Amino acid sequence: MKNIIVALSLLMLMFSSAYAQDQRKRMTPEEVKEAHQKMEAARVAYLTNRLSLSVSQAEKFWPMYNKYNEEKYRIIKTMYDGNRKRLDDMTDAEAAQRVKLRLDVQQQLLDLEKSYMTKFQTVLSAKQTYRLMTASRDFTGTVMRRGMNRDEDKK
User: Fold this and answer.
1) Which residues form the domain of 128?
2) Sign of the CA dihedral with 90 first, then 91, 96, and 101 last
3) Whose CB among 46, 116, 123, 141 lies 3.0–4.6 Å from 68's, allowing a Cys bridge?
4) What does DSSP assign to residue 81?
């Protein structure tokens, strides 16, 4: 009987700990906004450093880059707006439509990137522009790896 009580107590402790961890993962809108601001500040610092921007370049580049990002996220958002359906719940026609939409979005993103790379070269050298392309992806990869490592540490 004593063993059953100890076992039940341990199970309850494990479940309450797991529930508390799940609750901590949910962020308030304010926390999300703050995390986003920190991420953007880190991106600015990272890219400014990697591109070796002068003060004059930075003043011209960042408004242009921010507009580029706004347009990019607006395009990406169209792919997810109004469609939260799981693949298993889609008909073949809906899946075909999603394939077409995804390819259209990828083409729009490519067109946008081409357009802005030309604009960036009015402020940056060709080498800095190329470095921007790789540094942006490097930053995103670094952030994702850190997030995955943090998730692994929590297990």
Assistant:
1) 28-154
2) negative
3) 116
4) T
